[in-house]
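Bug #77: duplicate submission created two jobs. Keeping one. Sequence:
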Amino acid sequence: MLWKKTTTIILDLLTTLLIVVAVVLLARPTGPLRSILVSWKTDRHTQEVAERSWKDLPSFATVLGREAAAGEIIEVGDYECPFCRSNQAAVDSLIQQKVRVWFVHFPLPIHANARRAALAVLCGEQFGASELLHRQLMTDTAWKSDGGGVRTAVAAGILDTLNFSNCLLSESTEQRLAQNEAIVQQLKVTGTPTFIGRNGVLRGLASTDQLLALTR
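Kept job's structure:
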């Protein structure tokens, strides 16, 4: 009887020791538990900032699916980001299902033409062509050789190329792009694409179903 009791105590102590060792290993700076906790904390911060900023999106972001009303998400993207380009079909499918997408511009420094593309889409808004320009830039590459952006603008139905060109160089357009970049910093987003909805955050490629889940 004493032997059984001693054995039980030893097993309990060993189990406790193993649990403590496992927790210590998992929680160390390079451990998987630490990574999960950091990721969870970052996503929570991102959602909290997004929730506070939602009402301000029309002042700086590009709206895709203007008439949509079934839900809303934010996409942080870059026109030369290969993953953003690959994900455009899923985003279009989302819009077809009446979800509005707020595209927040985050031209990465490693992409030589991304900033110019972002400015073009922002300028396209005053001509009612921002959505068409967005899709053109996401789905072809001819615009990269269009230094002044005039051919790209004309292809999107913008005939007032003088005003479009002036818009590209205007301080107000640069300021609007700076607003996009500022909110990205506040969101603690470092890569593209990143999708933010009221029900979560997805970083990287995402399917239509995964994006829809963010809005529910």
